[in-house]
Automatic annotation (TrEMBL), chain A:
It comes from Azospirillum ramasamyi. Belongs to the xanthine dehydrogenase family. The gene is xdhB. Keywords: 2Fe-2S, Iron, Iron-sulfur, Metal-binding, Molybdenum, Oxidoreductase, Plasmid. This is Xanthine dehydrogenase molybdopterin binding subunit. Its cofactor is [2Fe-2S] cluster; Mo-molybdopterin; Mo-molybdopterin cytosine dinucleotide; FAD. One of its GO terms (molecular function) is 2 iron, 2 sulfur cluster binding. Residues 523-542 are annotated as: Disordered. Residues 37-145 form the Aldehyde oxidase/xanthine dehydrogenase a/b hammerhead domain.
TrEMBL record, chain B:
Residues 3-88 form the 2Fe-2S ferredoxin-type domain. Keywords: FAD, Flavoprotein, Iron, Metal-binding, Oxidoreductase, Plasmid. Pfam families: CO_deh_flav_C, FAD_binding_5, Fer2, Fer2_2. PROSITE patterns: 2FE2S_FER_1, 2FE2S_FER_2, FAD_PCMH. This is Xanthine dehydrogenase small subunit. It comes from the Bacteria. Signal peptide: none annotated. The gene is xdhA. One of its GO terms (molecular function) is iron ion binding. Residues 192-365 form the FAD-binding PCMH-type domain. It comes from Azospirillum ramasamyi.
């Protein structure tokens, strides 16, 4: 296995025809032809083993209650029911939590802590039967006081699900006290449902002895393996988890798939029959966690030029009833509370509050977006306080650039930013979007428009790349070359639509200089590549691309050594061209070389491994280098608001985004466009609404509205930043792209705020909360008008 | 009575004797046929992942429509042709232009919504030549994608017309299939079922009237865009379903001279153009009811008969002064639509009675009609508030006629009596409108729920009256964010 610290140089390649699907090519998704024909197989499409049982969950109807008694006899007696399982039937540990805190039971037994918490599972011959039977349990509850909101949790005992974190740089109190100007306020940001189009699903097939094979829609097969093993009380080695593709994940299948997998595994092992569990969409909404909602209290001190002197922020998050990933998520909110801005002094604190709601979890950006919205609000506050355009204040507060060397590069977590390209990137976008001209046009429009008002905002993104849990920054791959020259590729990453399998196949095609059609990506399996990390934190292609490259290079090195020896040439004289190899003057097909190598007993299979260099993080001290590098971007959004109704449309968005040297510009553009629209949805129309009993009433697409086709920007210009290779040695100098574009959606939120501010002559910061539904926009307009009227009197 | 369901799955005639009356097309495809290309995303007709295309006879011509397989009952396919994503590839394995365009434009990421998009695009491709951007948005409004942000799919919708010869498309020759479907057409009642439960689909109005008298507990199903959810979400067991979709006389729109008589089985899609010709803003409102898949199934009669306080057509119909024709056996009666809605969950409909038609009067000279739908999302959303207004001023600028009706403000669609009274006879001025906005506070006591708070509902309802005023008094004012902005000044 090659040592990652001394990377193998690429082999000399032949001039001439480029391979199909080389790195940096806008290659189509490897499954596109199967997506469009319906032939791509998702878990629910796998041919069911004979005798398969369908499983459904019985759920708590109370937010917080002791279970006095459960009568499951009506469930057992329902048509088609084969078995019912409760906490008493768990052979191992009744826990599916990802943090080892034992705070997330597979089945609640004595206490329920949110509406929708599973209490039992029923297995029946058909899904319809299981679903009907699950409703028949008679559960007697003794109700306990339920804490449902951030406000209630703050006012009460302030129970935390996990220890909070504080980041400190400089002396924030002193800086605030000494600052010429100060503003403070509170910002509320709603959560978000993932709304992956394929709901959660798992199918377990029992094997011999302790073995079980699980097909599950998950971003984290290794964690599923661990959870299933400890729920069943079997070794990890007995559990195999396989994922070919997911119908979307977005973080919602990082830990949330554990429940479904563990439940089907339990049923499969106890009954000896294959078992499948797919919740109805309404139940999926109730059972699974979402993006955390936050209330953020901020204080900022600044000078007359708008330069930040000191910042304090407290991030109170609704964590739900258990820890899940709330620790790392609220940590990341702090890591991004600076966005692209230098704070000479800052104190940032998290408050992951326990509530009697579903346990919130990972979602694209992982707390980062909430931190960045807070940063942008602070900048807006300064701009309104000084009567300046927010873009001026943004630019003024950017981190310094390497070349500048002005000491403005230290983050609140004491990592020095060495790759800041925001000033140039924003300058380019400012120019290409015509920001200042349009600012004037919009001012003129608003001056004469009676009902409709326009708003404009340009917001930047700086996003740290790496898991903040440093040990996650590793990956493995497995490459087999067969004697006909075809290649099988396997790695630890999950294909969830982001094009990971395509990008990694491009890497392997590039290494062997064969057309990408030669490479067959195979389903991710804990049996092929073990001990994998979640496909999360935007890390998929960075980590797995490097691991696959290492595996491919191992094999290529062996082929080169073999050819050099067999045909008596120097290794440098073995050169790879499109599907061919030149050994000295001898020209042969790649397949011919492979066959010859096989005959000479050369190993044609290799594993590859990669770990991200340079990173470390000391959480207790709040110091370290948690990120290998940063990805940057910026978006300029223009909106029109109806001041009688609060409705709005997004007229135009211009994006310039940094993918380093893109592995696949078509796929990356798709990530940018899709991430932007998802981020915009979070901050605009997507609203989670719980009633007073803790029941989620926006529980399906009929009530929970994600952006539809016509909600996308009417003019949508998306460009990748050119000539900007990653300064770090990432896979072909590309940058991660999964999460960063999500935060570009902030531009729409701030453009709405800008339009709203126009009703009071931009004299007051609108302090618009998210999501900015038409109701919030109209309420904000009404409040501003009142304030303006009051200030005139 | 014919006791066998007959339809075409692609080119294959399927005849089924025993069928669960509420078995959905999606479950039949996935569970019985193992055709798993069609996906379930929500099981409530809101995400479009299950979109299939149904060909049906409209008179003697074959029409292809995108519909949601998840809430459509299999037995409603009688006499139709069902196309699923598996039908699109050519015999040689070549992708259909719709599919190829999606591949070329990078229109799929996770791929789960993709078969549904492909089928919506197929319907568009078969029915329209190079639609404009707004029309593409409409055609795709019922398909949610969480990955792409839609941009590449819209590019595919434009690009698909550049691939291959549309006139030579495999599905372009409708005549032969129309003949096959005509051969399935009959005037008999279709009666199929399983396990003692029945699906009855009459072909004529008298048959329907008699079936309703004979089966007092039966559930009437038209588009199933509501009843479908009773089955998929609440798992209700319906013993007898009487389906109105085969009754051709209910699917007619008759021009009576002074009014349109719209049969209760007319779908939103069927009615949109005729209504828009009379009341352009009503047409715009219909464009925003559900999405294409829902409008191809849902009926205006059903929207009235189910008595929902948030149905979108009742406020508009009430503002237009529409009346309702109810029928029981051979007896019919007519009543003003607003009188049909008694209170939440209760309508003036007797046992065995059904909505036969809604009678929409044509606008008199000088009448102006406006409808405004307020929701979190413009397309495929349920109204928080839906307001409709009909206004006529006399020669002196006084309000000669005003009808204001709102949905979402009360337990039923309801007129704003106090606001109307405040305006009637007075001059149409901003001050008068502000007084009427205040008077409206006495008309409604809305609820707070996940769609909107009571406060917002009241504020926005009053503001819509102001919007009406601005649109009718200041032609230069730009007041519309979506739809045809010219409507505001019509």
């Amino acid at each position: 296995m090659p040592d990652v610290t001394t990377p193998i140089a690429p082999a000399p390649t032949l001039p001439g025809a480029r391979i199909e699907g080389a790195v940096h090519d806008p290659r189509r998704h490897e499954s596109a032809h199967k997506h469009v024909s319906g032939e791509a197989v998702y878990v629910d499409d796998i041919a069911e083993p004979a005798g398969l049982l369908h499983v459904y969950l019985g759920l708590s109807s109370r937010a917080h209650a002791r279970i006095r008694s459960i009568d499951l006899s009506p469930v057992r007696g329902a048509p088609g029911v084969v078995a019912v399982f409760t906490a008493d039937d768990v052979p191992g540990v009744n826990d599916i939590g990802c943090m080892g805190k034992h705070d997330e039971p597979l089945f609640a037994s004595t206490l329920v802590e949110h509406v929708g918490q599973p209490i039992f599972a029923v297995a029946a011959e058909t899904r319809d039967q299981a679903r009907r039977a699950a409703k028949l349990a008679v559960v007697e509850y003794e109700e306990l006081p339920a804490v449902l909101t951030i406000a209630a949790a703050r006012d009460g005992a302030r129970t935390l699900v996990t220890p909070p974190m504080t980041l400190r740089v400089g002396d924030a109190d002193a800086a605030l006290a000494a600052a010429p100007h100060r503003v403070e306020g509170r910002l509320a940001i709603g959560g978000q449902e993932h709304f992956y189009l394929e709901s959660q699903i798992a199918m377990a097939v029992p094997g011999e002895d302790q073995e079980v094979l699980i097909h599950v829609s998950t971003q984290h097969p290794t964690e599923v393996q661990h959870i299933v093993a400890h729920v069943l009380d079997v070794p990890d080695a007995a559990v195999t988890v396989e994922v070919r593709r997911m119908g979307g994940g977005f973080g919602g299948k990082e830990t949330q798939s554990n429940l479904f997998a563990a439940c089907t595994a339990l049923v499969a092992k106890r009954t000896g029959r294959a078992a499948k569990l797919r919740p109805d969409r309404d139940d999926d909404f109730q059972i699974t966690g979402k993006r955390h909602d936050f209330e953020i209290d901020y204080r900022v001190g600044f000078d007359g030029g708008g330069l930040v002197r000191g910042v304090e922020m407290l991030f109170a998050a609704r964590a739900g009833y258990a820890a899940d990933l709330s620790g790392p998520v609220t940590d990341r909110a702090l890591f991004h509370a600076d966005n692209g801005y230098f704070y000479p002094a800052a104190r940032l604190e998290s408050l992951p509050l326990k509530t009697n709601t579903v346990s919130n979890t990972a979602f694209r950006g992982f707390g980062g977006p909430q931190g960045m919205v807070a940063a942008e609000r602070v900048i807006d506050e300064i701009a309104f306080a000084l009567g300046k355009d927010p873009l001026e204040i943004r630019k003024r507060n950017f981190y310094g650039t390497d070349a500048g060397g002005d000491g403005r590069n230290l983050t609140p977590y004491h990592q020095t930013v060495t790759d800041n390209i925001l000033p140039e990137l924003v300058a380019q976008l400012e120019e290409s979007s015509g920001y200042w001209t349009r600012r004037e046009e919009i001012r003129a429009f608003n001056a004469k428009s009676r009902i409709l008002r326009k708003g404009l905002a340009l917001t930047p993104v700086k996003f740290g790349i790496s898991f903040t849990a440093s040990h996650y920054n590793q990956a493995g791959a497995l490459v087999h070359v067969y004697t006909d020259g075809s290649i099988q590729l396997n790695h630890g990453g999950i294909e969830m639509g982001q094009g990971l399998y395509t990008k990694v196949a491009q890497v392997v095609a590039e290494e062997f200089q064969v057309d990408i059609s030669t490479i067959r990506p195979t389903a991710t399996s804990t049996g092929k590549v073990p001990n994998t990390s979640a496909t999360a934190a935007s890390s998929g292609s960075d980590l797995n691309g490097k691991a696959a490259q290492a595996a491919a290079r191992s094999i290529r090195e062996r082929l080169v050594a073999f050819a050099a020896e067999k045909w008596g040439v120097a290794p440098e004289a073995v050169r790879f061209g499109r599907n061919r190899v030149m050994v000295g003057d001898r020209d042969m097909s790649f397949a011919d070389l492979v066959r010859a190598a096989y005959m000479a007993r050369v190993q044609l299979s290799a594993t590859g491994f990669y770990k991200t260099p340079k990173i470390h993080w000391d959480r207790a001290a709040g110091r370290g280098t948690p990120f290998y590098y940063f990805a940057y971007g910026a978006a300029c959004a223009e909106v029109t608001v109806d001041t009688l109704t609060g409705e709005y449309v997004v007229d135009r968005v211009d994006i310039l985004h940094d993918c380093g040297r893109s592995l696949n510009p078509a796929i990356d553009k798709g990530q940018i466009e899709g991430g932007f629209v998802q981020g915009m949805g979070w901050l605009t129309m997507e609203e989670l609404w719980w009633d007073g009993e803790g029941r989620l009433r926006t529980h399906a697409p009929s009530t929970y509205k994600i952006p539809a086709c016509s909600d996308r920007p009417r003019i949508f210009n998306v460009a990748l930043l050119e000539n900007a290779p990653n300064r770090e040695d990432t896979i072909f100098r590309s940058k991660a792209v999964g999460e960063p574009p999500f935060m570009l959606g902030m531009s729409v939120f701030h453009a709405l705020s800008d339009a709203v501010a126009s009703v009071a002559g931009h004299r007051f910061c609108p302090r618009l909360d998210a999501p900015a539904t038409p109701e919030r926009v109209l309420t904000c307009i009404a409040a501003l008008r009142e304030r303006a009227a009051a200030s005139r009197q | 009575m014919r006791q066998r369901l007959r339809f075409y799955l692609g080119d294959e005639l399927r005849e089924i004797d025993a069928v669960d009356p509420t078995l959905t097309v999606l479950d039949w495809l996935r569970l019985s046929e193992r055709r798993v290309g069609t996906k379930e995303g929500c099981a409530e007709g809101d995400c479009g992942a299950c979109t299939v295309v149904v060909g049906r006879l409209d008179g003697d011509t074959l029409r292809y429509e995108a519909v949601n397989a998840c809430i459509r009952f299999l037995a409603t396919l009688d006499g139709c042709r069902l196309l699923t994503v598996e039908h699109l590839k050519g015999p040689d394995g070549a992708l259909h232009p719709v599919q190829q365009a999606m591949v070329d434009c990078h229109g799929s990421q996770c791929g789960f919504c993709t078969p549904g998009f492909v089928m919506s695009l197929l319907a568009l491709y078969l029915n329209e030549e190079r639609p404009d951007g707004r029309r593409i948005d409409d055609a795709l409004a019922g398909n949610l994608c969480r990955c792409t942000g839609y941009e590449p799919i819209v590019r595919a919708a434009q690009g698909m017309y550049d691939i291959g010869d549309r006139s030579a498309d495999r599905f372009a020759d409708r005549a032969a299939m129309a003949e096959k479907l005509k051969a399935l057409r009959d005037e008999e009642i279709l009666g199929v079922g399983a396990g003692g439960r029945r699906f009855l689909a009459p072909a004529t109005v008298p048959q329907l009237a008699q079936l309703l008298l004979d089966n007092p507990g039966a559930t009437i199903v038209a588009g199933a865009t509501d009843v479908g959810l009773w089955v998929t979400k609440f798992q209700r067991v319906l013993a007898t379903v009487i389906y109105t979709g085969r009754v051709r006389d209910l699917r007619r729109i008759e021009d009576r001279g002074d009014a349109l008589v719209i049969g209760a089985g007319v779908t939103y899609s069927d009615a949109a153009e005729r209504i828009a010709a009379l009341y352009p803003d009503f047409g715009e409102l219909i464009r925003r009811i559900g999405a294409e898949q829902v409008r191809n199934m849902g009926t205006i009669g059903g929207n009235i008969a189910n008595g929902s306080p948030i149905g979108d057509t009742p406020p508009a119909l009430i503002a237009c002064g529409a009346t309702l024709r109810l029928r029981r056996g051979a007896e019919t009666r007519e009543l003003p639509l607003e009188d049909f809605f008694i209170e939440y969950g209760r309508q003036d409909r007797r046992e065995g009675e059904f909505v036969e038609a809604v009678i929409l009067p044509k606008p008199a000279a000088g009448m102006r009609f406006r409808a405004y739908k307020i929701a979190k999302r413009f397309d495929q959303d349920i109204s928080a508030v839906c307001g409709a207004f009909r206004l006529r001023l006399d020669g002196e600028g006084r309000v000669a006629d005003i009808r204001i009706a709102f949905g979402g403000m009360s337990g039923t669609p309801k007129r704003a009596g106090a606001a109307e009274a405040a305006l009637l006879g007075g001059h149409w001025t901003e001050d008068a409108v502000i007084r009427a906005m205040e008077a409206m506070a006495g008309d409604y006591t809305p609820l707070s729920d996940w769609r909107a708070s009571a406060g917002y509902r009241s504020m926005v309802a009053a503001n819509l009256l102001m919007k009406l005023y601005v649109e009718t008094s200041d032609p230069a004012a730009d007041t519309r964010l979506v739809g045809d902005r010219r409507l505001a000044h019509a």
